[in-house]
């Protein structure tokens, strides 16, 4: 089979590797049918990652189950499933607490799309082995489009986690989103659907701002350009730029006891306004997301019809064009493979 391999800045290529096979009765083999790059993949492709190539890329997809082990009961061949980005067993103490990104049964940071906790391959591959099928795979609800939900493996479900629990605790909260990619746009859509009283999206890209406005958000080009009335007035803030200077400006925009969720992958060091954060009583969370625990709720919201994740999909591209098209700059392209 082929797996898409990152080999150098803005360069990927198909490489032939052996077909994966079942290694236990708990496993499944799946074939991705709609796969998309995570926002962090864009940073990797631009040469800003911290892992030297080559390695298999991709950790967001909807796939078709091809084969299952004898003990797998949650899915069957032919099912469409969401494949979460992190490898998790579902039964260790951490997994039972919902900390699936910190599973104790596999090496630390075991994941698809980067050889950090072992080599698990990537989801831009013709076939993928899923080691704990019942724990990991989530059936795609009937009626949901695999293209629209290709990002449920990570970015869509992460966006749900970034705001949904906070809005449940703080109905009508004011939400600030400082972003450069799909995560922030998903957050705008979800926050509006879940009753945020005010959503402000900050991004220098006018096309991204136009999408956010379609979700009912007000927009601005830069945090530092906010009018004084808006500075220090947000109950919840989400930073998804990967830039510490933007994170610093984001936390300074919070109201007293405000919450900041950082979804940016900060590959470079920087400084935060710790005294200001102390005086305001800011809660800051920077976390590798335990996305498997949130996928069912995120899919349920998508199925409710109150959100429109398909609007963030910028391009639908044939699977065979991955090597040439993936390095190009797109907001949220989805690569689709014909079945049958």
From TrEMBL:
Span of domain Alcohol dehydrogenase-like N-terminal: 25-140
Domain Alcohol dehydrogenase-like C-terminal: 183-301
Keywords: Metal-binding, Zinc
Parts of the chain that traverse the membrane: none
UniProt xrefs under Gene3D superfamilies: Medium-chain alcohol dehydrogenases, catalytic domain (3.90.180.10), NAD(P)-binding Rossmann-like Domain (3.40.50.720)
Cofactor(s) it depends on: Zn(2+)
InterPro entries: ADH-like_C (IPR013149), ADH-like_N (IPR013154), GroES-like_sf (IPR011032), NAD(P)-bd_dom_sf (IPR036291)
Name listed for the protein in its UniProt record: Alcohol dehydrogenase catalytic domain-containing protein
Source species of the chain: Streptomyces cinnabarinus
High-level lineage: Bacteria, Bacillati, Actinomycetota, Actinomycetes, Kitasatosporales
């Amino acid at each position: 089979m082929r797996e898409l391999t990152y080999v150098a800045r803005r360069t990927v290529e198909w490489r032939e590797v052996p077909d994966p096979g079942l290694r236990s009765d708990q496993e499944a083999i799946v074939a991705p049918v709609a796969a998309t790059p995570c926002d962090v993949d864009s940073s990797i492709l631009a040469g800003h990652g911290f892992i030297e190539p080559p390695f298999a890329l991709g950790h967001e997809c909807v796939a078709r189950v091809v084969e299952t082990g004898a003990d797998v009961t949650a899915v069957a061949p032919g099912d469409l499933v969401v494949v979460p980005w992190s490898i998790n067993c579902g039964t260790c103490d951490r997994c039972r607490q919902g900390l699936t990104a910190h599973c104790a049964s596999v090496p630390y940071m075991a994941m698809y799309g980067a050889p950090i906790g072992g080599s698990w391959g990537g989801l831009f591959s013709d076939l993928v082995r899923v080691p704990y099928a019942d724990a990991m795979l989530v059936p795609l609800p009937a009626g949901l489009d695999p293209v629209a939900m290709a990002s449920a493996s990570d970015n869509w479900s992460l966006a749900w986690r970034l705001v949904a629990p906070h809005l449940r605790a703080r109905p009508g909260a004011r939400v600030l989103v400082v972003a450069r990619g799909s995560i922030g746009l998903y957050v705008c859509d979800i926050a509006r659907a879940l009753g945020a009283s005010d959503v402000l999206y900050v991004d220098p890209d006018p096309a991204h701002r136009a999408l956010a406005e379609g979700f009912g958000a007000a927009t601005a080009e830069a945090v530092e350009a906010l009018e004084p009335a808006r500075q220090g007035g947000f109950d919840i803030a989400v930073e998804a730029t990967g830039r510490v200077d933007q994170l610093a400006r984001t936390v300074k925009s919070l109201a007293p006891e405000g919450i900041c969720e950082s979804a940016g992958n900060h590959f470079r060091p920087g400084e935060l306004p710790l005294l200001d954060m102390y005086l305001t009583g800011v809660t800051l969370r920077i976390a590798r997301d335990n996305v498997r625990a949130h996928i069912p709720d995120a899919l349920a919201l998508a199925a409710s019809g109150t959100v429109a994740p398909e609007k963030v999909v910028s391009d639908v591209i044939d699977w065979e064009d991955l090597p040439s098209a993936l390095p190009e700059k797109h907001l949220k392209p989805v690569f689709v493979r014909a079945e049958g």
